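Following up on my earlier thread - several people asked me to post the actual chain instead of describing it. Fair enough. Here it is, all 124 residues.
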Amino acid sequence: MARHCLHLRGEARCSVLLTKLHPKPSVNARFVNYTAQQRCDDLRAHRIDQVTRGAATYAAVFFKLPDAPDEEFYCALWYCRVVEEGPENLIFNQDPPQAADGADEDPPLRQEEEEDAEPSVFSS
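Reply from S.P.:
Thanks for posting it. Predicted structure:
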């Protein structure tokens, strides 16, 4: 039987493991003594953006909690589980990230000078 896929849209209700939720100081202050398998189930998706931590850049989902609208949490898109879809008119634009200033373009190919090969090399 095929599994129904819930789509990540604006205002979608999501569930994330607390160990994967960032920024850690805000998570640790809000959720005291959480376990490794404990989830936060009442997160509302706010936007999708690129996050760079160390040398890694990845797509992240940013959330707001209903009882703390001034705080913003995020996790990697991979760790987000959609519990309830948001309205159909609030679809996120999930284009692939663009490199800055044309860095994603291929370098120009070297055009080597053609050298005349000796005919004796090709004779049998």
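The mean pLDDT is 78. That should answer part of your original question.
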